[in-house]
Amino acid sequence: MRKMTAKIRVLRSLVTAAPGTARLLAGALLSVALLTSCYEEEHFDFPGPFEIDQRIPDTLPFPFDETRQAGEWLMKEGVPDYRKILFKGYTDYYPAGDTTSWSLFPDGMHMIPHRNYYPITDDDHFGGNPNSYQDNWVYSKYFVPIGPGKSFYMYAKITVGTFSGTAMGLALGRSWETKENFVFGMDGFSSIAPTFFLDFYGTTVGVDPNDGWPTVNEVIVPGIPAEVEVVIHDGRFYTLINGTLCFTFKFPQGQTYYYTPAIRPWRNFVNVHDMYIESNDMYTVDYAMHEHEQGYTRIQTPALASAGDNQLLLFAEGRSNPRTAEERVVQNTYPAGDCDILMRRSTDGGVTWEDQITVIAGQGSGESYCFPQTVSTAGGKIILHYSALSGTVIGDDEYEYDPASQEIYQVESTDGGNSWSAPKTITSALVDGTGYVRNGPSHGIALTSGTYAGRLLMPLTVGDDAVRVALSDDEGASWRLSQVVEGDGLQYGSVVELEDGRLMMMTGHNNSSPRSRMVSYSSDGGESWSPAEAIDADLETGSFGHLYPGLLVKGSDQTIYTVNATGRQKDGETYNGPTYGINPLLFSSTDAGVTFQQVGPLFEKPAYEGYVTPTGFMDAIVLGDGTLVIVGEGGVESPQEGVVVYRK
């Protein structure tokens, strides 16, 4: 090993003498310089206040639990906690045979090599794509702080595949001021003595062994697990690998942000065995259900019902056991293949959720049960509708439903969801032959005033471009269809009853204009509806928010709430991924929907430059105390991660 300066030797002895020293940081090589120049950028001396005599203090701060109990284990002893850790892979939305980028083994998550270091043609790379290595990530689902007075610590045990012609990195942040990334990584152009580098908000610095810093091969052996630690405290960054200090510097003050650290294998391939994170100021999103829970690859399409006494029932689709690679990909966005209807209960208004998940329909059948939707009668009976529907995978990632295969079922509970009736078929009443019927995504309502008191309404989307409602005047014993709401490309209807007895329906649509949500009214209990018109009530949808599901719900004080996306995005870190809604906003109205006022974003936590909140299908209920509980497809990086809860 290279001869170190006196200060480095002192520091190493201090650090390695302390127990529990092994921390890794997750690094995503996001900067334009790294992506476009393949790490061959110029390595120059670090500017400003980072002189050598300031770079290495005699001691380094470590205000964290050395037993690693105070923080969160994202992955421990090879077992990932999918509520806390996210693996992104090139094959997530690409059916590369039956091979996946990440696979779980007894000792942890293994990533297959994507890049051939000696290719003759592009076919030698995984999937025939020379850039397939770029779409693999390991993300913390916890946001940790970087800024004045903030601290966080991260530990990981990983195995690096090779040094030959490779590079990998740990992404630590993204500055508000420069809009650039904070990355610590390794250059792999030398298989003999690869070096570390730092990309600090757009300034790239080589970690020079001539200054006494170790080379990568001095602290990491390919194929052997390495313990990596990263500490940021009081404006100082340092990282250790297998107990050896690899770099430290004190960075300038800037506006505090919260980031989800990530390991990016880049041209390398890694196995992840353990991952731990700690801060006294970190947070994550509030999952009610999440991916891979109880064996379900994806849990999507939430529906809510009140069971009284502050109890909520959450229903969703649980998708699992894909039979082909194409079906595996399709299950990210469609209820294809083996899909069950699930239920989970909250007894405290959605603050916490019971561990138990009950399967309402589909268990062990291998069939596709989907589109859960609820309505509750005035007497407290809960009615649940769902469908069995098959389809065909088109190409790599599209799915075409077979309307002729659809069966719509109804089950009922009179004891708050503790037991359910046998399913009965209501298909003939709700399928009109013009396309498959999608219940929801919002729950139905029971009318309370005038001639139509007690009538049940369930909004439906027919095919991909028509909206109507299902009606029942006998508490669900029989159903019939309303007239179709006049309008082009209408989808995702939600209905509330206004104080004057009229019904208000808000929908999305799949047209390029108008770039707003649509509204329709009924004065006959939902039998017929006015032509849908663009709503003129200060509801911001951005350019594309109208394309995605929203919701409309009313509280006991007649306040109407609505939520809609304000944009769309395709994850730039995911190959072939879907486009989804982003940055949902909550609005309220106290004048029967004539005007709406913006309440604010659903996701109110501070994040980092460029972060967007993913959103998908959603539902909501207003509790007796006025608390608005919203459940929606969501997560840290994409709506496919599960069902997220917001309480307002």
UniProtKB/TrEMBL annotation:
Task: Give the UniProt record's GO annotations in the biological process aspect.
Answer: ganglioside catabolic process; oligosaccharide catabolic process
Which stretches make up the Sialidase domain? 302-531
The UniProt catalytic activity note for this protein reads: Hydrolysis of alpha-(2->3)-, alpha-(2->6)-, alpha-(2->8)- glycosidic linkages of terminal sialic acid residues in oligosaccharides, glycoproteins, glycolipids, colominic acid and synthetic substrates
Q: Which InterPro entries match?
A: Sialidase, Sialidase_fam, Sialidase_sf
Name the source's superkingdom: Bacteria
The record ties this protein, via Pfam families, to:
BNR_3 (PF13859)
Molecular function (GO) terms listed?
exo-alpha-sialidase activity
- Segments forming a coiled coil: none
Report the EC code(s) recorded for this entry: 3.2.1.18
- Provide the Gene Ontology terms for cellular component: cytoplasm; membrane
Which family is annotated? Belongs to the glycosyl hydrolase 33 family.
Instruction: Report what the protein is called.
Output: exo-alpha-sialidase
